Amino acid sequence: MIVGSAGLMAIELGCRGAAVGLSLLIAGVLLRDRGDMAARLSAALVVAVAASAVSEAPGFPRPWPYWGLILLALSSSGAVLFWLWARATFDDDFVLRPWHGALLVAVVSVQLFDAWPTRGALRGDLDRTLSVVYLGLAIAAAGQTLATWRADLVAGRRRLRVVVLLGAVAYSAAAFFHKLWPASVAGSSVWSIVNAFGLLVLLSLSAWSLFQAARMQQASILLPAAGRIPGDLGSARPEGEDKPSAIDRELLRRLQRLMSVERAYRREGLTIGSLSAELGVQEYRLRQLINEGLGHRNFNAFLNRYRIDEAKAALADPKQRLVPVLTIAMDAGFQSVGPFNRAFKAATDVTPTEFRRLALARHASQPGEPDDDTGIGQPD
């Protein structure tokens, strides 16, 4: 059975309508149930997808009417929002900066200038440049996924990297290459249908992940907020279930001894693979233990907790007042002073130098305390 042009258009419009409905539903649920930065970026992204689904539908007026420029502005923001979403979701240390907003405004402004109805013969000459920018942002999002994948301890977020993000990057790449070469009318129609179907598939997968996670009363595995720490496994398991706890208490004790007593965090190039090999367990079990047993979402954050504690003890020790901050940082396991300063300030809200000044001032105001009380974690 051969479907005519009217039938193909009906299929495409149906896919686009379903994509718009799913987008608005996902955005509403995210804004209702969560207030973190990743959720807000996610909601903005799916609204941009909805605008794109409407503006690229067959029969939408061209050149752009003035009212249609609103939809164009929303849809053209999607590439930047997708990149920011990947950063906020997969990078636990990500902070939204003013220049991120400036980039968003710049991309939208260029797209609106390119499509402004009164530009006449100059219309469309920036399309390829914008396509390159959009592809570059998609590649940057993929790079963020790969750069932090190894240290990620959250199982749902690791699955999301492969299933949703790489699928969206593939979709962006296909859209880019489609714009590089002129296509026949028939070829454009086929691409338009594929485009609509691809959007619907990605949104359906995202909606299923979101609502499945909500049903299990857990943090969303679709768009997990970078700063949220899940509860212990017992709180996520239904009452009365006979499954044994996934947290091996003996393994947890061995891990804590390895970190607190043997100070494995000081080792250069320590990875979760080498740590799991030393403990004699599979890597996935160690990931689960650190995430669900100790509440860490990222392996580097897990290591830095011990490093920062040791550095704090050394900085507060009057006997080490003349030891350079860099020496203390490297003794604790940091490879340079830059990452140490950032991690220390994120954990304490002050710089290492300021922390030392305040700690030594407190010590000086309490002359009755012995000077050799240096606490745990002092470098050997």
Structure in words:
This protein is mainly alpha-helical. It folds into 2 domains: 5-215, Rhopdopsin 7-helix transmembrane proteins, CATH 1.20.1070.10; 259-380, Homeodomain-like (Arc Repressor Mutant, subunit A, Orthogonal Bundle). The protein has helices at 5-33, 37-55, 68-76, 78-90, 98-115, 127-149, 155-180, 185-215, 233-236, 249-260, 272-279, 283-294, 299-315, 325-331, 337-348, 352-364. Helix 2 packs across helix 3 (68-76) and helix 13 (299-315) packs across helix 14 (325-331). It starts with a helix and ends in a 16-residue tail after the last helix.
Keywords:
380 residues, mainly alpha, Rhopdopsin 7-helix transmembrane proteins, Arc Repressor Mutant, subunit A, 2 domains
N-to-C SSE string, H for helix and E for strand: HHHHHHHHHHHHHHHH
Sheet having the most strands: none
CATH structural architecture of the largest domain: Up-down Bundle
- Output the CATH topology of the largest domain: Rhopdopsin 7-helix transmembrane proteins
Helix coverage percent of residues?
55-70%
Distance between the termini: 79 Å
Structural shape = elongated
Number of DSSP strand runs: 0
Query: What gyration radius follows from the Cα positions, in whole Å?
Result: 26 Å
Number of helices: 16
Number of domains: 2
Determine the structural class based on helices, strands and strand pairing.
Answer: mainly alpha
How much of the polypeptide forms β-strand, as a percent range?
under 5%
List low-confidence stretches: 216-245, 371-380
What's the mean pLDDT score? 78
What's a quick, concise take on this entry?
The chain is an all-alpha fold.
